[in-house]
Specification:
heterodimer, A: alpha/beta, Rossmann fold, 2 domains, B: alpha+beta, Arc Repressor Mutant, subunit A, 4 domains, three-stranded antiparallel β-sheet, 21 helices, transcription (chain B)
């Protein structure tokens, strides 16, 4: 006998948490304008909500200095506004987005003007996972969550540890991280994120048809993924960042106790404090 | 809840069976497209989205390339459904290769919905005209009360205190399916009427709507118009007032029936009147996709076959009376027992043990609902046993053979029947055998060939 309440949610009801890259350094230099990008993305959100009344979308804006929830389709504030209909729903989103970008810029001014080209991916992943955990704990019945990263700016090696931790906790709670990378070079972080969590990593070759890529690949609910032929990752860049100078390295030193990675030889592990012996080459000298 | 799915699916079948012209007319309305889209299987939904901006024909072969070998059967179901509903238009070229294209009307409506958004044909009325609107809780209570009164009328027509003025068109719908009235006797529920009572609200609603539609078709009302209005209604905002004057004459007739059912609440202002959709109406399109809002249960079943129902509703009492003997009734509690006699009564009315069990499980009191199983196993097992007691004899239509010319012919015929899996009984001494009716032609052919 199947228990009745388990059918409350159909198989394909999904909760999509989207991390939206708003990094001004990236968008100002990129050939594809942000306005056009956002119009494709909004149509995609619309289509997700169209598929089922119970589908839910949460959007997190990812700037260079901060992240913020800018839209939640389940919150009531969207319905109470005088304008009914879907575009009105998004006027809310766009307004929040503008506020966020202004605030993010303010935060950037306060800091040293060192050019930070990367977005705060680790922050938005953590926020997405927090949200999903809250949904998990709200009761036995919840839509199937997944995270979608719409990312353009290059990886920030200094976020390596935080991003990897977020990826592993997503893996632990079986939340796939999909990544749609629109920048020119592949992102090693997102490739690893999707590879480890069983999500899809895809870099659309033509941004003019972004909506089609989004609806073809990233609109697929977790239930249908078992039946559809979706893009497979060609190769994953597994390179790590060192803990001492936050640089991406091919080869390095690993602490035998805590597995911290370093680009050069140290006397003592900076993470766990273990004392290393002399390296072979040093002893020979 | 398989019930809702089956009934809702039947409803979509009804939509699918409409003539192409009418279906295309329906798809002019974006909301109907949305409701239809949401009712599709997951894979089909995905295909519609993928094809939404493709104007060219896509061959069946390239569609198949989208799926992994595991999904072929699901793929076929999805495509069949889409073609049935004329969402996909199938064309066969000279090499008899199939290709598909999204129905242009459907495509246009959905694209509009996606980019521009949908606008209902009517705006909610400003709050300065409609002075006192009921709160959402009031509205929900109203809808439930209305629906319960309507069911109560069904189950025991003489128990309704206030003479409810359910229109004749609604009553006709009952009489068609759920009730029979023999001459001079009080109307009685039919088998499906009893089963109807044990379904959950959404299933009941769909069942009823389906009957209502096929009934109005017989009266010469256009089913397409009715369906489009109902689906459109489900996208209205709960608790907002909409002016009745925005409706067509046809819709105004229907809205009265819908108010009787509790789908909308009609209110009369000084000058104008308006209708307020309730949760029942807006749930229509949700439950199409087999997911509904569950209300809190009230029944506790104990291992000693006693049933406690924490409810003040007369309807609940009447439903319990269908399969248990109600012993006493306190202001907020109904106590009864499930006995062999009470169950036999239910079985005679055409209710099955499974239906009773699923009713008890679906309406389990929150305290017991957490437990697995929510209804004690010894009770459910006993109920199934009592039911199977009634079905000791199984009837199968069959043919009896005798007077075989030889033992060889007899054995050959037996083997032939065995091969078709249709030999019910044989007596090799007297050379008699009995075969299932479906197998009779094969055995007869076999014997003819032997001659």
């Amino acid at each position: 006998m199947t228990s009745a309440p388990s059918k409350l949610y159909a198989d394909d009801v999904s909760l999509l948490v989207v991390s939206l890259d708003t990094n001004p350094f990236f968008w100002s230099t990129f050939s594809f304008p942000f306005s056009e990008f956002i119009s494709h993305v909004l149509a995609f959100f619309n289509s997700i909500l169209l598929l089922s009344q119970l589908n839910q979308i949460v959007v997190i804006a990812t700037g260079c200095n901060s992240c913020s929830y800018i839209y939640d389709s389940s919150s009531d504030s969207n319905h109470s506004s005088e304008a009914v209909g879907m575009p009105a729903l998004y006027s809310n989103l766009l307004q929040k987005l503008e506020e966020f970008v202004a605030k993010d810029e303010q935060l950037g001014k306060a800091q040293t003007p060192g050019a930070i080209a990367s977005s705060l991916l680790s922050g938005s992943l953590s926020m997405a996972l927090c949200y999903i955990q809250r949904i998990f704990r709200s009761g036995p019945l919840h839509p199937q969550p997944r995270i979608l990263c719409l990312q353009g700016s290059p990886d920030g090696p200094e976020q390596y540890v935080a991003v990897m931790n977020a990826i592993f906790s997503a893996q632990r709670s079986t939340v796939p991280i999909d990544s749609c990378f629109i920048g020119s070079n592949n992102s090693a972080f997102l490739q690893q994120a999707s590879y480890i969590t069983g999500g899809i990593y895809y870099r659309p070759p033509q941004l003019d048809g972004l909506f089609q890529y989004l609806s073809m690949v990233f609109a697929t609910d977790l239930h249908s993924r078992a039946f559809l032929r979706l893009p497979k990752s060609v190769g994953v860049d597994f390179r790590a960042s060192c803990f001492c100078h936050k640089q991406t390295i091919d080869m390095g030193y690993v602490c035998s106790v805590c597995l911290s990675i370093f680009c050069e030889h140290h006397q003592k592990c900076s993470t766990c404090g273990s004392v290393f012996g002399q390296s072979q080459s040093a002893a020979n000298l | 809840m398989p019930e809702v799915r089956i009934i809702a699916k039947n409803f979509m079948d009804m939509v699918a069976s409409m003539p192409a012209m009418k279906l295309d007319n329906l798809y002019e309305n974006g909301f109907i497209c949305e409701a239809i889209l949401r009712s599709l299987p997951p894979l089909a939904k995905k295909y519609v989205l993928q094809m939404l901006y493709i104007d060219a024909q896509v061959t069946a072969k390239s569609l198949e390339e989208w799926v992994l070998p595991d999904g072929t059967s699901k793929h076929r179901v999805a495509i069949d459904r889409l073609v049935q509903l004329r969402v996909f238009i199938e064309t066969v070229d000279r090499k008899s290769e199939k290709s598909y294209k999204l129905n242009p009307t459907f495509q246009r409506s959905l694209q509009n919905l996606l980019i521009i958004g949908g606008t209902l044909p009517r705006e909610p009325m400003p709050s300065n005209i409609t002075v006192r609107l009921p709160t959402l809780e009031d509205l929900e209570a109203y809808a439930l009360e209305q629906w319960e009164r309507f069911l109560l009328r069904l189950i025991s027509p003489n128990q309704v205190e206030r003479p409810s003025n359910i229109s004749s068109s609604l009553m006709k719908v009952f009489q068609r399916q759920l009730m029979i009235q023999r001459d001079k006797e009080a109307p009685r529920l039919t088998e499906s009427g009893f089963q109807f009572l044990l379904m959950d609200t959404n299933a009941q609603l769909w069942y009823f709507i389906r009957e209502y539609i096929s009934n109005s078709e017989a009266r010469g009302v256009d089913a397409a118009e009715l369906i489009s209005f109902l689906l459109e209604l489900s996208f209205h905002v709960i608790g907002e007032a909409y002016n009745v004057n925005t409706l067509t004459d046809f819709q105004r007739n229907i809205i009265k029936d819908l108010a009787d059912l509790g789908l909308v609440k009609l209110q009369q202002g000084r000058k104008e009147s308006w209708f307020i959709p309730t949760k029942l109406a807006t749930n229509l399109s949700v439950s199409l996709a087999d997911s509904s809002c569950r209300k809190q249960g009230f029944v506790v079943v104990e291992t000693n076959f006693r049933v406690y129902a924490y409810s003040t509703s007369k309807l609940h009492c009447e439903i319990l009376r269908l399969f248990s003997s109600v012993e006493y009734q306190l202001p907020n509690l109904i106590v009864g027992g499930i006995t062999k006699e009470s169950l036999y009564n239910a079985f005679e009315n055409g209710i099955t043990a499974e239906q009773i069990i699923s009713f008890l499980q679906q309406n389990a009191h929150p305290r017991v609902a957490e437990r697995m199983p929510s209804v004690p196993e010894n009770v459910t097992d006993q109920m199934r046993l009592w039911e199977s007691d009634l079905n000791r004899v199984e009837m199968t239509e069959a043919y009896f053979y005798d007077e075989f010319p030889s033992r060889d012919a007899f054995e050959g015929a037996c083997d032939c029947a065995r091969e078709w899996n249709g030999l019910l009984w044989e007596d090799s001494k007297k050379m008699h055998m009995v075969v299932k009716m479906e197998v009779h032609p094969y055995v007869r052919d076999y014997l003819r060939r032997q001659k």
